[in-house]
Every structure is written in structure tokens, then in C-alpha cells.
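Please fill in the sequence for the structure shown.

STRUCTURE ENCODING:
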């Protein structure tokens, strides 16, 4: 292969399928394979990757991204060719690796779609081609399937002996290094008619030494269902003395299998291998033969006969693959875009998939995501719901309600998320930590839900509070806490206390107002959105999230006035302890005094020391709204007066942080400019940035943070380790949280610009991310967006990123302007000229009011944003009387709800 040829993936149809030639000439690529039943796999172009159902149950060896090209562990399929020797259909042999940069190297073509993966590998020298298709079938079975089709592409007959070889790890990721050999002694290995199964006697992990019931296996059959010839169940016997998984003695010397056909064998105390020998066959030129390999896990010994009847033939494989493609296409095509760039529209399908993947994988179990033990964090619960509100809105109400059960009465929240919805657990490591931003996100998501649904009654739904032995935002411990009483806040009488969702929201946003540092901004505590700012717990302050909380307070105030207007509620019932937080209703607090705020907060903590009276008080809706608005406006004025950095260049920006020495972090210093993108996003996203400040912020971002090579950096180079701020600055500049292009904040910046009416500037931001992501020569990633782009332009931590939810949300609600306003449909397009097709059309398919809508915008005049407005709207061909608002036009929910369910409805919008 000519190493100078440009390499890139390209779409092959209209539904996201793509191909990548010479796919194995990339070191860090992987692809997700997953189902709702808990099977979580990843596969590389050379079939490296892992298969697991959780941290303690890895079928194959757990790995990190470096193992994709350095480890010899892989799903391998060997072919011994009579007279020519051993060849790996997956490309994983020592000989193939040695020939990788020579003219004898194999050709490899990857094809993939939602969610299937196929690699076709050909050796011109040997005259053989292998096509390997992988996917995880729909349903609850923890199974991964692999079909291998061998084809004779030479002019002569080939005599082949195939052997599948998949290492079976069969235990916890904790055992990869610690006790690797000792835990292999627990292995109980069995062979049966179709393969090799391992059921370790015990599990050794952080849960203790306990009886193990989980069983793991690799099984195979020829495409017609015929059983294999025999098996190699022990890894060391398969590779031979001095051999290796990429040059095993059993294949290279074509040894007979250890266990014969149909024979049962039992071995104990060794590293296991799913080694499956198939019968020797002779293929005539052009002829093919197929094999199905099944990787499976179960909570007990595997019923191999049932398993193989279901999965062990090529005919069954084809049907299951079709079901799999249909399921994922349905999920992804819930939202579809049509613009002047069809490739970008298909790319957005992969972005739409990413929030679903994050729900299924959490933040772990893909090669880059080698931190943590699975599950999602508090932030994830709320930000993933942003996408679900668009893709699967019917499920969101119950999810939101369950999530609020994790809120403590002190405004903080549980940090260990259970497996079941609404399950929260006291910190298992007994390490108290509070991320100061956590309280801000639930209202943002809930507000979107209220706008999409109009379900104001949700605010009055009751939910319990989480309780553990931490109090006062984890500054104190409650020695009287009895874990047996359950993780619930209780009243003085011992009853579980429940408060309304609105009460939860108010606690989350009011308590931080008083929890300030010496510069009167909210304390940084353990960290904020940027987990890397974790070393300023005493004196650090997050100015940026102070602006977020202030915007929440103002929006909650406005929401209360709306509730009063629409529902007629004059009063609001809240726990009596919360009276302390509405100081304007009683003893007022001097907001300019840090000590006065802190003392007031301490009095609140003392009034509710991990229990409440259970008595509720009725407060005036108007007075509560006034109190919140007063607090918000005080913060806005404080930030604009005290935290604005005026640059010598004439522009300016907001300081985002104070460090643990109480020093302002951002500004123009003798060492250089220090600026964060986060510090600008939240004042823009909410109400803190005054209209006249916005152009100055944009100019400062363009000057200080935009890098043509990698996009909008998260921060400038602060120049060395900042031990008074956070570990992020120990990372090399240009990587991860220290100056990389962090997709999440870049997209939120674009979203904020759209919201503030700076559409062309917002479009530029989103386009930069798109162009960086699809430039495969640099980004080296499949379609979608990464968590971040590093200094070299490579996409990092692909698939599992909350930024996908934000991009989907931005495209639907801001770019296409399809959004809710307390249940009604608001159309406010912000499309630019390039987004209309040759006929002047741009469209979106989405769900609103439980109806599938296709909204088609047609530009009959100018397609330049700012020069067009909505001229007319028709619904299924019938003209709609326009209700114009300052933002656009409204279509009542009642009109949409009257439409038949279960079919698509056409909304045609003329722009003129």
C-alpha cells in the first residue's frame, strides 16, 4: 500500500453505514457493540477489544486503548493453509505483523453501521479472503456473535484447517494484575459439543471472596450448524512452550485438538482459551465456507444446546443481524436532519446514537474509558435526559422523578449511582466530596422538560431525599446515622420525609447562594464541571457556576410567576426549615457580607441536622419569586462589577475562578493571558453577561482560545502545575482538561451564542467541531464526536461523552428552532444559507407532543439568517393561524395532540 495515499471513511448509503479502506493501519480505532441486556463489547479493525457485562465480569481480558495494538489478546480466527502455513483472518499473526509495512501486507476493508462491524481481509499472496462480521444481538442475552466467511480467491484449490481462538478471562478487572495467577487457579474449565466454558469457583474482588455463579464461554459451529472437530481449552497448551497468541504452536504446527469432537473435558487451575478447531476442508476457486462464533455469559452454567440452536447457524445469524440493524435504525432515526450537506446529516445520526451508548455503557467499558468501575455520575443522569427528551420523551418524566431522590436536604447529592432507577448509595469508600455544580443541572433539565411537555404539575410531585452520614455539604458527619434505616431523610418522628420537586430545586439553588468564599462567589468545594479543578477546596471559588446558579434563580422566579398565572396558586408549601433561606421574608442578610451569608447558612444547617420536623409552611408565591429574583440580580451586578476582565486589547471576559490561595485565576498577567472557555459559557448561556458584554467576550475567545489546528481550547496555557487549583494542570497543555478542544464546552459555547442571537458565530463554533471530527487523516476516529481533541488533532475518548446530548439539543432547539414553550410548539429557525439544499429547503424529523413531526422550512426569499422570517405554516396541508411571539411562532399543544398518533405529520413552514 502507498503510505502517502489519503485515508478516510466515507458513507456508503443514506442511513449512516460507512466504509474505511486499510482500516488496520490505525492504532486507536474501536467500535461499540452493545445491547439492552447488559452485554458491552468493543472491537477494533483487527478484532481486539473486550466483552463484559460489568467491572467484575469480563469475558475477555479487560484492556485500555494502548492494548488495542500492543496486546496479543484478541478474538482471533486462524487458518492453516496446506503448503502455505498459518494465516490470521483477523490480521493477528506474528508473520502478518512483520509484513505489515511491506508489499505482502494484507488488504483490509472495514464496513460498519448501527451497530454492526465487518472487516474483509485479503491476502493476494495466499489467495484467501476472510469476511468477519460482528454484532451483539437484540434482547437480554449476554452474547456477542461473530461470523467468519472464508473464500478461495486463488486459481487453485485450497486445503484449510480453521481454528477460532478467543482468550477467556472470566473474572473481575481487578484481577488483571493483582492476583492474575492466583485467580486463574479458581478456573473450572469445561468442553462440550460446541466449545469451551469457564465457571470460576470463587470471585476475588473488592466484594470479597465469594462463591461465583457466572459462567463464560466461547462456542462455534460451521454455518450449517455442524459441530467443531475439537477444542483447545487451556491457553498454555494452545500456544506451546515458547509460543504466543500471535504464533501459537497448535496452529503453526497444525496440532490435533486436545479435546476431541463431542468429547467432554474438565480442566482446573489454568488460563482458559476458547480454542475451537473445525474440520479440514478443501475449497475450490471461488468457493466459500462460513463459521459462527458465539461469545456468551450467563448467571449460571450455560445451556449450550439452547444457545447454539438460537445463535449457531448462518441463517439465524442473518435474521438476528437484520433485527439488530432495524432496532438501532429505529432508535437513531427518531431524529433526522436534512440540510444542504447530506454527509453532515448522516454524521448527525452517529451523534444521535451517542447518548444511547452513554446510557448503556455509562462512562466505562470502552478502551479509552479506562477509569472508573462503570455506571454514570450525577451530572450524567441529568445531561443524558436532555437527549432523551428529544429521542425518547415518554420515559423522561419517571427518570427525572427518580433522579431527584438523590438530593440531600443540604443541597448536595449522592455521588454513587445505583443500578436501578432512583437508587442511590452512601459513598462506599467513605470519602466525602461535593462537586459544587451538581445542584445547578437538575433545574436546567427539568425546565426543558416543562417546556417540552407543559407538565407543571410535575413540580408538585413529591419525592424523598437522600441521606447518609454526611451533613452540611459533607463538612460534618452524623454519628447517629443508622445505615439500616435506609438512605432516606426522616422526620423527628422517624417517618420518611418527602418534599415536592420544586422544594428539591429550591434547596439545590438557594443553599449555594450563601455558600460563598472570600470574594463572595460560590465555593468551588471538591470541583465543578471541570473535575480537574480539584485542589482548591478551602479557598477556591467558581465564578462561572455562580453565574449559572444566578440564572437558575431568576428562571425559577419567572417559573413561579407563570405557575401562579396559569394554575392560580397563591402559596407554596415548603419545609419550615427552608424559611431561613428566604431571608427577605424574615431577617434580611447583607449580601455584600461574606461572613453574614456563611453564618446564615450555618443557622440553616443547624435547623436541619440530617432530619426535619416534617412541618410545612405556606409561603406567598409572589414573595418567594421576589426573593429569588433579588438574589439573582444581586449576583449579576456583583459579577459584572467585580469579575469582568478588561483587556488591553479592548475586549474583555469574565474571570471564572479563584484558586486555593484566594487569587483571581484569569486575566492578563506578566506571564501571559489566562482565560477559560468555561468562564464565558455560563454567563452567556444564562443571564449574567450583559448584552453589551457579548461582543467583547466573543472577540476575546477568538483571540485567546481559538486554535486553527484544534478548535476552541478549554483554556490558555497557564504555565505549569497549579497545585492551588487542580490536577488538570498536571496534564500536558493541549490534552484533556488542560487546553484541549473539549467538545462539551465548545458545543455549550455554540449553544449559548445561538441563544443570544449570535447565529453566525454559533454556527462557526459548531462547524469547527464537525470539521475537526470528520477530518479522519488527523482525528483518526469514526463518525461522531469525541470527548476532546488533543494537541495533534486526534479525537479522544470517543462515543461516551455528554457533549453529544448538547449537540443534538442545539441542532433541534436552536439551529432548527423546534422547541417547547410550556407545552406549546415554538418554531424559531436559525438556519444559515449553507444549511438549505439546492431547492431552498431544510427539514427535521422529531417527536413533539407524543407525535412524530416532520418540519420542513422552505426559503422563498433570502436564506440568509436575519433576512427571513416565518411567513406561513401549514399542518398536514391545512394552514395554521399564526400566533406570533417575539421568538417566533407558536402552535398550540392542543392542535398537535388532536392529531392521530402512530403516524408522521407534516409541518411546512414558508420563510420569506
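FILLED IN BY: designer on duty
SEQUENCE:
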Amino acid at each position: 500500500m502507498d503510505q502517502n495515499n489519503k485515508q478516510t471513511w466515507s458513507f456508503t448509503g443514506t442511513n449512516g453505514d460507512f466504509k474505511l479502506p486499510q482500516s488496520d493501519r490505525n492504532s486507536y480505532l474501536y467500535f461499540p457493540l452493545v445491547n439492552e441486556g447488559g452485554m458491552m463489547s468493543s472491537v477494533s479493525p483487527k478484532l481486539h477489544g473486550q466483552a463484559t457485562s460489568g467491572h467484575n465480569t469480563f469475558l475477555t481480558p479487560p484492556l485500555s486503548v494502548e492494548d488495542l495494538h500492543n496486546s496479543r489478546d484478541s478474538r482471533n480466527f486462524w487458518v492453516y493453509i496446506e503448503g502455505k502455513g498459518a494465516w490470521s483472518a483477523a490480521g493477528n499473526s506474528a508473520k502478518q505483523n512483520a509484513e505489515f509495512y511491506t508489499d505482502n501486507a494484507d488488504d483490509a476493508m472495514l464496513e460498519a453501521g448501527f451497530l454492526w462491524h465487518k472487516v474483509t481481509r485479503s491476502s493476494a499472496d495466499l489467495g484467501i479472503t476472510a469476511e468477519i462480521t460482528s454484532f451483539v444481538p437484540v434482547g437480554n442475552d449476554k452474547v456477542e456473535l461473530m461470523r467468519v466467511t472464508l473464500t478461495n480467491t486463488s486459481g487453485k484449490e485450497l486445503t484449510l484447517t480453521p481454528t477460532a481462538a478467543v482468550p477467556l478471562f472470566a473474572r473481575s478487572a481487578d484481577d488483571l494484575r493483582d492476583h492474575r495467577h492466583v485467580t486463574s487457579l479458581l478456573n473450572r474449565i469445561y468442553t462440550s459439543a460446541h466449545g469451551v466454558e469457564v465457571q470460576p469457583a470463587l470471585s476475588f474482588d473488592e466484594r470479597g471472596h465469594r462463591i461465583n455463579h457466572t459462567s463464560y464461554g466461547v462456542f462455534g459451529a460451521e454455518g450449517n450448524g455442524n459441530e467443531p472437530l475439537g477444542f483447545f481449552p487451556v491457553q498454555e497448551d494452545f500456544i506451546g512452550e515458547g509460543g504466543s497468541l500471535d504464533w501459537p504452536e497448535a496452529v503453526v504446527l497444525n496440532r490435533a485438538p486436545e479435546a476431541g469432537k463431542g468429547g467432554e473435558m474438565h480442566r482446573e487451575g489454568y488460563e482458559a482459551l476458547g480454542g475451537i478447531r473445525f474440520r479440514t476442508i478443501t475449497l475450490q476457486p471461488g468457493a466459500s465456507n462460513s463459521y459462527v462464533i458465539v461469545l456468551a455469559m450467563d448467571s449460571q452454567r450455560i445451556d449450550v444446546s439452547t444457545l447454539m440452536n438460537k445463535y449457531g447457524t448462518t441463517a439465524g445469524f442473518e435474521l438476528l443481524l437484520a433485527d439488530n440493524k432495524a432496532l438501532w435504525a429505529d432508535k437513531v432515526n427518531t431524529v433526522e436532519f436534512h440540510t444542504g450537506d447530506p454527509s453532515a446529516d448522516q454524521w448527525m445520526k452517529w451523534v444521535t446514537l451517542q447518548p444511547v451508548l452513554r446510557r448503556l455503557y455509562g462512562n466505562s467499558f470502552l478502551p479509552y474509558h479506562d477509569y472508573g468501575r462503570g455506571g454514570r455520575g450525577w451530572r450524567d443522569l441529568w445531561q443524558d435526559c436532555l437527549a432523551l427528551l428529544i429521542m425518547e420523551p415518554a420515559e423522561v418524566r419517571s427518570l427525572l422523578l427518580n433522579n431527584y431522590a438523590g438530593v440531600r436536604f443540604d443541597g448536595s447529592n449522592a455521588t454513587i449511582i445505583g443500578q436501578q432507577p432512583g437508587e442511590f448509595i452512601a459513598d462506599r469508600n467513605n470519602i466525602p466530596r461535593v462537586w459544587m455544580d451538581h445542584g445547578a443541572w437538575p433545574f436546567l433539565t427539568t425546565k426543558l422538560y416543562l417546556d417540552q411537555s407543559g407538565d407543571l404539575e410535575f413540580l408538585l410531585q413529591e419525592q424523598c431525599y437522600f441521606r447518609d452520614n454526611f451533613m452540611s455539604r459533607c463538612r460534618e458527619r452524623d454519628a447517629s446515622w443508622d445505615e439500616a434505616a435506609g438512605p432516606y431523610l426522616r422526620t423527628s418522628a422517624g417517618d420518611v420525609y418527602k418534599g415536592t420537586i420544586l422544594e428539591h430545586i429550591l434547596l439545590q439553588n438557594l443553599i449555594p447562594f450563601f455558600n460563598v468564599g472570600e470574594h463572595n462567589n460560590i465555593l468551588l468545594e471538591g470541583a465543578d464541571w471541570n473535575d480537574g479543578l480539584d485542589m482548591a477546596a478551602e479557598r477556591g471559588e467558581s465564578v462561572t457556576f455562580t453565574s449559572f446558579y444566578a440564572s437558575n434563580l431568576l428562571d425559577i422566579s419567572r417559573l413561579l410567576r407563570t405557575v401562579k398565572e396559569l394554575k392560580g396558586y397563591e402559596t407554596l408549601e415548603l419545609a419550615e426549615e427552608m424559611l431561613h433561606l428566604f431571608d427577605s421574608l424574615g431577617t434580611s442578610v447583607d449580601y455584600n457580607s461574606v461572613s453574614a451569608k456563611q453564618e446564615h447558612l450555618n443557622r440553616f444547617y443547624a435547623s436541619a441536622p440530617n432530619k426535619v420536623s416534617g412541618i410545612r409552611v405556606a409561603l406567598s408565591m409572589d414573595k418567594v419569586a421576589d426573593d429569588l429574583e433579588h438574589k439573582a440580580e444581586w449576583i449579576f451586578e456583583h459579577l459584572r462589577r467585580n469579575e469582568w476582565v478588561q483587556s488591553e486589547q479592548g475586549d474583555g471576559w469574565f474571570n471564572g475562578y479563584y484558586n486555593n490561595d484566594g487569587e483571581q485565576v484569569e486575566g492578563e498577567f506578566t506571564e501571559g493571558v489566562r482565560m477559560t472557555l468555561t468562564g464565558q459559557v455560563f454567563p452567556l448561556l444564562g443571564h449574567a453577561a450583559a448584552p453589551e458584554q457579548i461582543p467583547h467576550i466573543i472577540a476575546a475567545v477568538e483571540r485567546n482560545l481559538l486554535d486553527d489546528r484544534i478548535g476552541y481550547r478549554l483554556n490558555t496555557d497557564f504555565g505549569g502545575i497549579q497545585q492551588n487549583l487542580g490536577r488538570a494542570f498536571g496534564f500536558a497543555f493541549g490534552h484533556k482538561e488542560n487546553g484541549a478542544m473539549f467538545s462539551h464546552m465548545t458545543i455549550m459555547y455554540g449553544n449559548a451564542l445561538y441563544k443570544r442571537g449570535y447565529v453566525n458565530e454559533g454556527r462557526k463554533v459548531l462547524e469547527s467541531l464537525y470539521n475537526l471530527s470528520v477530518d479522519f487523516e488527523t482525528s483518526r476516529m469514526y463518525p461522531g464526536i469525541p470527548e476532546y481533541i488533543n494537541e495533534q488533532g486526534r479525537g479522544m475518548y470517543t462515543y461516551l461523552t455528554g457533549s453529544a446530548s448538547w449537540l443534538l439539543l442545539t441542532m433541534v432547539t436552536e439551529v432548527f428552532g423546534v422547541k417547547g414553550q410550556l407545552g406549546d410548539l415554538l418554531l424559531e429557525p436559525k438556519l444559515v444559507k449553507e444549511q438549505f439544499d439546492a431547492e431552498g429547503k431544510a427539514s427535521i424529523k422529531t417527536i413533539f407532543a407524543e407525535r412524530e413531526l416532520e418540519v420542513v422550512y422552505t426559503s422563498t426569499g433570502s436564506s440568509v439568517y436575519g433576512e427571513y422570517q416565518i411567513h406561513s405554516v401549514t399542518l398536514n396541508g391545512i394552514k395554521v393561524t399564526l400566533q406570533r411571539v417575539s421568538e417566533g411562532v407558536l402552535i398550540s399543544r392542543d392542535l398537535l395532540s388532536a392529531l392521530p398518533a402512530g403516524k408522521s405529520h407534516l409541518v411546512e413552514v414558508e420563510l420569506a
